[in-house]
Amino acid sequence: MLTMERFLKHRRRYEFIAVFLLLLLVGLVNATTIIIERIREDQVTRWISAFGLELTGTLVILPLIPLVAWFIQRLNVSWGNARWRVLWHIPAWIVFSLLHVSLFVMARKLLWALAGETYRFGNVWWGLLYEMRKGLIIYLAIVLTLHAYWFIVDRLQGQADLVESSPDSPPQYPHQFLVKMLNRQFLVRADAIDWVQSASNYVILHCADRSYPMRLTMTAVTEQLDPRQFVRIHRTAIVNIRSILAIKDGVDAQVELTTGATLPVSKTYQPELRQALNLRP
To answer: How far apart (Å, rounded) are the C-alpha atoms in residues 124 and 97?
Structure first.
């Protein structure tokens, strides 16, 4: 079962697979549509050529999507600046369309050359005009889909806020986190966190019977946890020393938690762990 925790841990992989399958499906549907229409009109049908044309037209969009995502994040459009910044999408659409055309023309020339034939784009200006019109629709679809996707993920993963400080801890360390997820608010006590897992630009707070994914970096969460209680044991893990049940020494050092979870301890952080537990080397 795909949980939010598992999704965030392997987010890039799932995103790549989903986009690839979607583009592949669109290419196959377009190719079969052309084939069916030509059969109905009693025209000569070249199946391989139809699939080659449509699949190259869709699959070359894959490397362009990260560029569009990067541009949107740099543009950072909001209600206050949307009036002018949204106009930057016009040159972005033109660049996107030109890159799209260049990539699928190169891909088709290569495929046709392997088949012993020559691919011809046709009249350059009419061809570009036709592809720019299609590129506008594709570009807008990508932009709107990315905004919708980011909005949904942000709502699902939650956000953390400081609630209060414990009298036993320095003021800079929160006693509780307020985690907002799906219009619900959860109070997570800092001492109830067994360990913290890094997942790209997000962290997951693992408690005894529940996990809370949040849009927070590992560095930020480290600064908010009391170092007398929490220690970094790996580049992807921070552990509550009160939740440690056992330690396995050796090359593949590990800690076993009271919850049953087993976490790796990298060589870099072994001295810090031993110091926190007052153990001798």
So the answer is: 14
User: What percent of the chain is modeled with pLDDT above 70?
Assistant: 84
Separation between Cα atoms, residue 254 and residue 245, nearest integer Å: 11
Cα–Cα dist 3/236, whole Å? 18
Q: Is residue 34 part of a domain?
A: yes
Dump pLDDT digits (tens) for 193-249: 999 988 767 788 888 778 887 777 888 888 888 888 899 999 889 999 999 998 887
**Mean pLDDT value across the chain:** 83
pTM of the model as a whole: 0.63
Of 122, 157, 192, the one marking the end of a domain is 157
User: Are 207 and 169 in contact, with CB atoms under 8 Å apart?
Assistant: no
Q: Which of 108, 104, 117 lies closest to 62, judged by CA? A: 104
3-state secondary structure 80-93: CCHHHHHHHHHHHH
Phi, psi of 28 (to 5 degrees): -65, -40
- Structural domain span for residue 171: 159-276
Instruction: Give the pLDDT band of residue 166 (cuts 50, 70, 90).
Output: very low
Q: Supply the Cα-derived Rg of the chain in whole angstroms.
A: 26
Using the Cα atoms of residue 121, residue 127, residue 128 and residue 132 in order, give the sign of their dihedral: negative
d(C-alpha 131, C-alpha 26), whole Å: 17
